[in-house]
Amino acid sequence: MQRMTKTAALAVALAATGLLGMAAPAAAKDLKIALITSKTGPLEAYAKQTETGFMMGLEYMTRGSMTWDGRKIQVILKDDQLKPDLGKSLLEQAYSDDDVDLAVGTTGSGVALAMLPVAEEYKKILIVEPAVADAITGEKWNKYIFRTSRNSTQDAYAAAAAFPKEGEVHLATLAQDYAFGRDGVKALKEALAALRPNVKVDFEEYAPTQTADFTASAQRMFDALKDKKGRKIISIIWAGPHPLPKIADLKPERYGIEIAPGGNILPVMKLYKPYPGMEGAIYYYYNFPKNPMNDWLVKEHMKRFNSPPDFFTAGGMAAASAALTAIKRAGGTSTDKLIAAMEGMAFDTPKGTMIFRKEDHQAMQQMYHFKVKANGKNDFDLLDLVETIPESAMPLPIRNKR
C-alpha cells in the first residue's frame, strides 16, 4: 500500500474532527442605510442638496473608502415625492424588504411626521434630516427618532436673537399655511416672549404654499403695521420660491416697514442682494463656520460643482457624520446599543460640534445672525456674519412626553 502523504494524513485527521467542512469566516454584511428625500416636487432643490451632502459626508468620514468598521456602505436612495403616505410605505420597505440598518430622511415635515410611527413599529433608528417641524421631536416623537436638522424653535430663537434688544418693535409674520409655517410662527412668538419682550407680533398672515400673487397678503400686513410707533418689520418664514421680491415690489418702505427674510438656500438668497443691510438668522452659510470638516466641504464642493455648499448640503453631511459616529460608538448596528450611544453623543458637522439632547434626541447646535452685504463679489458672496448664536442663547423647551 502506498504511503499516505502528510497532506492527505492531515485531511484525514481534520475530517475525523469535523473541521474539514468548516466554512471560512463569512464576509461582513454591507452597512445598509436608506436615504429618503423629496426629490419630486417643490422641495426638489433641498432634497438634492441633502443627498449630495450625505454622500460627501460618508466620503469624508471614511476617507474615501466608503467602508466603516470593515463593512462596505450601501446607500439606498428613495423619493417620497413629498407625499406622506408614500414616505411611510418607503420607510416600511426600507426596514423590511431592504433590511437597512438605519434610515435618514426626509425633506418635508408632513412626510417626516408620517414616518415616525414606522420607526417605532420596526424598532429601528430614523435620523430626521432636514424636516424641521417641532412635533418631530415633540409630541409625535418616539425613542427611535434622532434629528440632526434644526427644529422650528431653534429657527425661532435664532431669529428672535437677531431682532433689536431695545426699543418698541412691531412685527407681522408671513408664513406658509402648513406645519412648517404655523409651527414656525408659534415658535417665533414663544422665542420673542423669552428673549425679546420688546418685540410684539401684531399680525399673522398665512398663505398657500403655491401662492404666486402676494398683493392681498402684503396689504393686510401693511395695514396692521403702518400706524404703529417704533420699528415695523415683516418676518418671512418660507420654504421654496421666496416671496421677498413680490413683497418688496409693493414698497413697504413707504410705511417705514422693513423686511426680515430669514435664512434660505443660496439661489433664494440671491434675491436678497438688492436689499443690503437686511438682517436675519440662518442655519448655515458656507463662509461662517471655521472647522476642518467645513473647510473640506467648501473646498471639495467648489472643485466638483463650481459653487459653495448650501444650507441642506451641510445638513446631509451632519446626518452622515451622526450615523457613522453612532455606529462606531455603539460597536455595531444593534438598535438598543445605537440609542444608548447616541443619547448625549457629540459629533462633528460642517457647523462644528452638535450634541443629541438625551431628553428628545434633538441636535443642539449654533446658528448665525447675518446682514446682507452691500457689494458682494459674486452671486455666492451674499452675507456678512454679525454674530454666532451659541446653543446657550437658545433655551429650547422639551416638548415630548417621555
From TrEMBL:
Residues 1-28 form the signal peptide. Keywords: Amino-acid transport, Signal, Transport. Gene3D superfamilies: 3.40.50.2300. Coiled coil: none annotated. The keyword Magnesium does not apply. InterPro entries: BCAA_transport, Leu-bd, Peripla_BP_I. It comes from the Bacteria. Residues 31-377 form the Leucine-binding protein domain. It holds the Pfam family Peripla_BP_6. Belongs to the leucine-binding protein family. This is Substrate-binding domain-containing protein. It comes from Ferrovibrio xuzhouensis.
